[in-house]
Amino acid sequence: MEIGISTALFYDESILAVLPTIKEAGFNVVEIWAGAGKYGAFSHFNWHKDLEIKSLEVCIRGLGIRVESLHSPFSPTIDLSSPDDAIRTFSVSEVERSMYCMKQLGGKILIVHPASSEQSLKDNISVRFSKCRQSLESLYIRAEDLGVKLAIETQLPHVFGGEIAVLKKLIEGFSVSVCGFCFDTSHTNLWQKGCINAFEKLSMTVNSFHISDNNGTNDNHFVPGDGNINWRELVHLIKKTNCSDIFMLEILGAAREIEPGRILSRAHKNAFNILNGIGFDKIEIEKEIMAINPPLKNNPRSK
């Protein structure tokens, strides 16, 4: 598998400024973060403007980086399952717009959140489901037209889309060649039976990954190896199913406090070691992160 990384690690910095650092750390594949509002949409890059998309396209080509995927925007006002039709309609248009941006950048998988907040499980679930399915049907048609894929991200357990049965029903009748799941290891490690069980249940419909670690209690999005996920077993299952050839890292939280070049190099090294069955110094890494920042509680910033 090839190792990639999401630019979400630098969501509040200029993407043009951080891509050379990403390349220097050994990454040739990226997932572009198309944020919304406070998530740094326009400090990272303005994906609404053709000129900025073109500038990014030129930068990526010049560095020899390939765009595998793009994370579509999500926020309280960009929510595909919102019971408010005005919000839901706007959300579909924004996600669709980000799909065109991804296509221009050469990407092929659009990551989407089925919901955007904890409020989603406090609403009528049947309404949430119906609205989300309606949104996905519209996006499915557009993705099919453009020749790209949708990947519904496995959510945290306290957000709509954080349950296997719901996720499977959401894509019922869809072709797996067009729509599947983005398996987020930090999120599913907080599910009742953990990420290994979750992957076994969803593997046939997984088309992409968000790889990170946590301590089993908070959505930390640590460098893989810094938490308690059983990477040896998970990687064995991933390679056995051959559902994706990109080991896409999505590192957030405390990692943002470490010097970019250093955290990127360590992330790449740990991912390489994990994929090749080589050990790593977990104790030293945990101590360093804890000294910088205590374990994070679930929050929008940590997704």
**Order of helix and strand elements from N to C terminus:** EHEHHEHEHEHEHHEHEHH
Rg calc:
18 Å
Task: Please tally the helical runs, counting DSSP H or I stretches of 4 or more residues.
Answer: 11
What separation lies between the terminal Cα atoms?
25 Å
Q: What is the typical, i.e. mean, pLDDT?
A: 90
What's the number of extended β-strand segments? 8
Low-confidence stretches: 295-302
Beta content: 5-15%
The coarse overall form would be globular
Structural class of the secondary structure composition? alpha/beta
The largest β sheet comes out as: 8 strands, parallel
List the strand order in the largest sheet: 7-6-5-4-3-2-1-8
Helix amount, in percent?
40-55%
Task: Explain what you see.
This protein has 303 residues and is an alpha/beta fold. The chain contains eleven helices and eight strands. It has helices at 15-24, 41-44, 50-63, 85-105, 125-146, 164-170, 185-188, 194-202, 231-241, 260-275, 282-292, and strands at 2-6, 29-33, 66-71, 109-112, 149-153, 179-184, 206-210, 246-249. The protein has an eight-stranded parallel β-sheet with strand order 7-6-5-4-3-2-1-8. Helix 1 (15-24) packs parallel to helix 3 and helix 8 (194-202) packs parallel to helix 9. It is globular, with a radius of gyration of 18 Å. Residues 295-302 have low confidence and may be disordered.
Secondary structure blueprint with pairings:
Layout lengths: L1 E5 L8 H10 L4 E5 L7 H4 L5 H14 L2 E6 L13 H21 L3 E4 L12 H22 L2 E5 L10 H7 L8 E6 H4 L5 H9 L3 E5 L20 H11 L4 E4 L10 H16 L6 H11 L11
Parallel strand pairs: 1-2, 1-8, 2-3, 3-4, 4-5, 5-6, 6-7
